[in-house]
Amino acid sequence: MCELLALSCSRKARMTFALGVLAAHGAASGRTRDGWGAAFYDDNDVALFREPAAAGDSPLIRFLQTQAPGTKLAISHIRRATRGAVSLPNTQPFAREVAGRMHVFAHNGDLPGIEQSATLALDRYRPIGTTDSEHAFCALLERMHGLWASASASPPVEMRLAVVAGFAADLRRLGPANFLYADGDALFAHGHRRIQSTGVVEPPGLHLLLRQCPDADESIHASGLSVAPGFREASLIASVPLTDDKWRPLVEGEIVVVSAGRVVAGRMP
Hints:
By secondary structure, the chain is α+β, with helices and mostly antiparallel strands. It has one domain (3-267): Aminohydrolase, N-terminal nucleophile (Ntn) domain (Glutamine Phosphoribosylpyrophosphate, subunit 1, domain 1), CATH 3.60.20. It contains four helices and 17 strands. It has helices at 16-24, 59-67, 132-149, 157-172, and strands at residues 3-14, 36-42, 45-51, 71-78, 94-98, 101-109, 177-182, 187-190, 194-195, 201-202, 207-212, 220-222, 225-227, 233-238, 248-249, 255-259, 262-267. Strands 1, 2, 3, 4, 11, 12, 13, 14 and 15 form a nine-stranded antiparallel β-sheet that branches. Strands 5-6-7-8-16-17 form a six-stranded antiparallel β-sheet. Strand 9 (194-195) and strand 10 (201-202) form a beta hairpin. The radius of gyration is 17 Å and the shape is globular. The two termini are 23 Å apart.
């Protein structure tokens, strides 16, 4: 299955080692070799890098390990194609503008029948590619549109979480539905089920790592991050633990909301 990685931090950081470890899982000889992408937020906009090729062999990945823009919020994905050709339009993460800010989405799983689902129908937003994952993203934006269009600032986190929770429940009825969704203000992570090393599809679908570090006079490296001086809090979310730290597996159907490196809300199924 595909793999996901996200960062939320109180100060700008680079995903250095963690991004490299994720890319190694996307080697040309492996199972997740069909593309990769990474979205780095800068306020309400994103720098988006994607290739429909193996991450492990990518010179661009090696460049980003040292030269990626510093960011407080990032989402990355490596792909194993199950729906849709190996092509740029089918490469995640996906990004769309809503209410003057970029929204980013990446999914790990399989959602058969999503095109026929009445609760996941499309109107304003349409897929560019042919994946079930992008259809899911467009369906989520359909639900989010009114919330953002009627707000002069970011809608309350609990209102956004309620929309994401309803959306996640509908996805779980179709199949494995691990996803990361960001709106520039907060990161929403939903853990479900994925293929484990045993070959069985079961929880956990995502793991969470929280880090707190004191102020530093110089840049420091922690849990795969290169962090600017004054670093305090960071959260990493990944399909599988990428370091030797104590990552917490998400409960099946759990959603966590992270902002500026801190978990600010959550919901159990």
